[in-house]
Amino acid sequence: QVQVEESGGGQVQAGDSLSLSCAAPGRAFGTYDMAWFRKAPGKEPEFVASITWTGDVTYGTDSMKDRFTITRDNAKKTVSLEMSRLEVDDTAVYHCVVQQVAGVRADFWGQGTQVTVSL
């Protein structure tokens, strides 16, 4: 089991920026493939972005690619999601996920952090 904890959510206005952080303080963090998913009320979980242990990144949609940036700091054992030009539709609980550990499928989810975007 890998502990995962998100922070940085909050309530902002459309057009604002927000930064989320995920701590996964395992000894093998450098081998983790990490991702962010989000879950809005009444909707299925949606893939937001991922970053492999080698630093390769993927985004869920072109809009996310244009507005969001995922990075990792192996020394601090954290993954960040920088979000800009937030939209009302970005409102959701954002979850950090450990997808793989040393190449082995893992799927460890954090409790999530709420992001609320209002007009």
What report would you give on this structure?
It is a single chain. By secondary structure, this protein is mainly β. The protein has one helix and eleven strands, in the order E-E-E-E-E-E-H-E-E-E-E-E. The mean pLDDT is 96.
What is the fold's blueprint, element by element?
Blueprint: E1 5-7, E2 10-13, E3 18-23, E4 32-39, E5 46-51, E6 57-59, H1 62-67, E7 68-73, E8 78-83, E9 92-101, E10 104-109, E11 113-118
Parallel strand pairs: 2-11
Antiparallel strand pairs: 1-3, 3-8, 4-5, 4-9, 5-6, 7-8, 9-10, 9-11
Question: What is the gist of this entry?
Answer:
By secondary structure, the protein is mainly beta.
Q: What class, by secondary structure content?
A: mainly beta
* Biggest sheet layout: 7 strands, mixed
Residue runs with pLDDT of under 50 for 5 or more positions: none
Instruction: Measure the end-to-end span.
Output: 39 Å
How many DSSP-defined strands?
11
Q: So what's the oligomer here?
A: single chain
**What average pLDDT do the residues reach?**
96
| Fraction of residues in β-strands | over 45%
The radius of gyration over CA amounts to 13 Å
The general outline is globular
Total of DSSP H or I helical runs spanning 4+ residues: 1
